[in-house]
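Field: COMPLEX_INPUT
Field: COMPONENT_COUNT = two
Field: RESIDUE_TOTAL = 598
Field: MODE = joint
Values follow.
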Amino acid sequence: MLAIEETTRMTIRSSGRIRWRRLGGSMALGYGLVLPALVLLSTFTYFPAVLVALISLYHWNLAGFGASQWVGLLHYEQLLNPISGFLQSLTVTAYYSGVMVPATIGFGLLLAWLLQGSPRRKTPGLAFFRAAVFLPYVTPTIATSIVWVFIFNPQFGLANAMLTALHLPALQWLTSTTWAMPAVMINNLWHNLGFSVVLFLAGLANVPPETMEAAQLDGANSAQTFWHVVLPLLSPVLLFVVIVTTIQSMQTFGPIYAMTGGQFGGGGGPLGSTTTTAVYLYKSAFIDFHYSYGAAVSVVLFLIIFILTMIQHRLGERFTFYQ
Amino acid sequence: MALTMRWVHRVLHYLLMTAVAVVFLFPFYWALVLGVDKRSQIFTLPPNLWPSFDFRPFLRALAAQPWALYFLHSVIITGVTIALVTITGALAGYSLAFVRFPGREALFALLLSALMVPFEAILVPDYVIAYHLQLVDSLAGQIFPFSASVFSIFLFRQFFKSLPVSLWDACRLDGGTWWTFLWRVAMPLAKPAVATVVLLTFTAQWSSFQWPLILTQGQRARPIEVALSYFQGFDGTHWREVSSAALMTLVPIIIVFMITQKYLIASVSGRSAEY
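Field: COMPLEX_OUTPUT
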């Protein structure tokens, strides 16, 4: 084994040297080809990542640094003041993400299990059912959120029609501080679930049928097989979905704006009940035109996402089982 | 007996899958019912699930806004972004896979680090930069920030790395340069990577909302999703017109989805495998 690896490495090294010489191996070519991408990423990603921290320390004027006034950590002090509503936005975000991530995992696994088909026998029409679940994910959120606004309309919406049919009390939905957020969650779960289902299906397809049959031969029922055999094999996908869903949920904007934006001045919901940190950021910077305050919010949001992702990676490494 | 059980199981499976499909497809159907049903009351019990067609609200919605212009904006923004993401990705991917130069791995690591920056966190500085580059309220301002994608670079690099070196040798023997090799040999072979980049960029750009909402002010560069949002805010009480407009923006993407769904689903599930 070692010998083969070493030979391969030598081949790669020597062929690399040949390639280097023959291609001219020039710095100019190497960097030149990366340059277009590098210029664009520097302008719109790297430089902004530094600039956002600087802007947050000024009272920013669009004309530039010369016209802006240095205020130090003033905006961060304002963030901590409960009157600013920032702390409330963190609570709302925690509520939103805290429901969305487990719900996406739970329903995603359930649907993937339902739609996985059998390796031994064809399931006609399976592709159609999978496509149906995936379709919402690729449709623009504003158009679909508009439909959900009508479904949740308190006077003539379908949601209340169903509740009434079940002899349950009708709800105020998007104008209620309690029910606006669940309505947004239902819309977004419907919209994004297909993404996780597709990933879980890909993961399930990699589980060798022999492994599951072996477990069943050993007397495991299907719940035990799922819990002790399939889930550990799925854990890398699971970790990926948890991380992506967390990052997505902390940046959700379109559906919240479309469902609970307009009548509340671009913000989220009655009494800020759907104002997540992402929506709060938008309101501060682009409704109130307080760019530097918005920049301070951005820095905190960036740090939260970064730290959460790191923690998930660390925990994930401990619980993830790689084949 | 065992056979009957298996049939019961299969029928139950199909019933469940049908129920799921109905739930996921219903909102699209409901947009149609709301848009073209002539009855003025939608809240009836049981709800009217079959519309009695009346296309006047649809025509009113069509006439209310220059939708064709917004649609054209979206097509240009999406089309040019797709072209640029593919070109910048293929060039950089080629360099990182084939060309040997000092600092290559460090450069690759630098590029990957861009994945750590969530777009939401750089909205404000990006707006400031767009303002100074005079990109506010322009199509270019909606294209350039998304014209280089680390994912695209990464995908092309992986794909090119999997090509055998003998291909390059053969090309060189025929007197080919790096450009002939990239254009005539590597790119045609990289069709799966191109398809993935094109489809994922398409869905991201066509649905893009927050950045164009911030960047555009009037009709000059407004894409269709932002126009739809303004139409909703302006005319939210006329649900038939608003639903018609929503339906109008949904139909093209549903058609694209029906044609490409096989590749699209493969692209998305492949994306996770790259991590």
